């Protein structure tokens, strides 16, 4: 297992365009999280999945944002009609191994840096 | 609502000096506390995880303590090296049933000068 993978690493888009990011979690983990981090701040929770079910969404996640995790494997985060305020690092993380071992730490991916111009 | 604060926001020390990074949180009903390292433009690397029932965790030159009742954690890095230069973030999770989502502090940016 190579950890949590995110694609792309960087994305520059024009305001108003739609963008989609992908996250591949650690295969043994059943929980997947999305966080957003702006410059100089700590990450903020956006949403999380347990298997394929999206169990919670933050108020930060406006209706322009949608996340999916089909079949409980990889996840996508789509932002429609991007705005300059969406510029941030989008971080994905996974946790909770399926094998029942008690290990509640997070493993983060390298993030996708979005710049809206 | 849980709030996590890290002081100082930035720290510069000469190589070899010990680092002391502070984290405080307002709601003591935490499930665990995790310390992360973040290099510029990169993702987060987990350093130490302390369960709410523990008082400290150690890994190599790193030691983290947790005082849940006072809402504080401290990360000690012994004999700092230039390679320790990074931003250090602490994060707390609430009870397991709340999805174990993390609330982060703003981070402490550390510079270790050779």
Give structural notes.
The complex is a heterodimer of chains A (117) and B (114). With 117 residues, chain A is mostly beta strands. Chain A is 0% helix and 51% strand. Chain A contains no helices and eleven strands. In chain A, the strands form two sheets. In chain A, strands 2, 4, 5, 6, 9, 10 and 11 form a seven-stranded mixed beta sheet that branches. Chain B is mainly beta and 114 residues long. In chain B, the strands form two sheets. In chain B, strands 2, 4, 5, 9, 10 and 11 form a six-stranded mixed beta sheet that branches. At the A-B interface, β4, β5, β9 and β10 of A face β4, β5, β9 and β10 of B.
Descriptors:
heterodimer; A: 117 residues; mainly beta; 4-stranded antiparallel sheet; 11 strands; B: 114 residues; 6-stranded mixed sheet; 5-stranded antiparallel sheet; 56% strand
Biggest pleated sheet of chain B: 6 strands, mixed
| Average residue pLDDT of chain B | 93
Overall pLDDT confidence of chain A: 90
Low-confidence stretches of chain B: none
Count of DSSP strands of chain A: 11
Fold topology:
The complex is a heterodimer of chains A (about 120) and B (about 110).
Chain A: E1 5-7, E2 10-13, E3 19-24, E4 29-37, E5 44-50, E6 53-57, E7 65-68, E8 75-79, E9 88-97, E10 107-108, E11 112-116
Parallel strand pairs in A: 2-11
Antiparallel strand pairs in A: 1-3, 3-8, 4-5, 4-9, 5-6, 7-8, 9-10, 9-11
Chain B: E1 4-7, E2 10-14, E3 19-25, E4 32-38, E5 44-51, E6 56-59, E7 62-67, E8 72-77, E9 86-93, E10 102-104, E11 108-113
Short description:
Chain A is mainly beta. Chain A has strands spanning 5-7, 10-13, 19-24, 29-37, 44-50, 53-57, 65-68, 75-79, 88-97, 107-108, 112-116.
